[in-house]
Model the fold of this input.
Amino acid sequence: MTTPAPLPFRQTSSMAIISLVFGLLGWSLLPLVGSIVAIVTGHLARGEIRRAPERYEGDGLAVAGLVLGYAAIGLALLALLIAVLFFGGLFAMIAATS
Done:
């Protein structure tokens, strides 16, 4: 009777963990820098996991970091757009009445 081959040990990608951590930091302590690091390391982690799926896991962590990073940057850009439109309209209204 033969014994089944042991399952290979897969380690969690360090880049995926970094992506998730900086994605969370992008929402709290490091708004812009944390989000950019989360996006870059998230894409690097997904590539690393795709190239060696028998060695690395953690695709969900990388995706979570990417989502957090992109969402933080998207909301920051939306807030900037709203601020520019609000104050631009306010200054236009002041200029029109004076």
The chain has a mean pLDDT of 94.
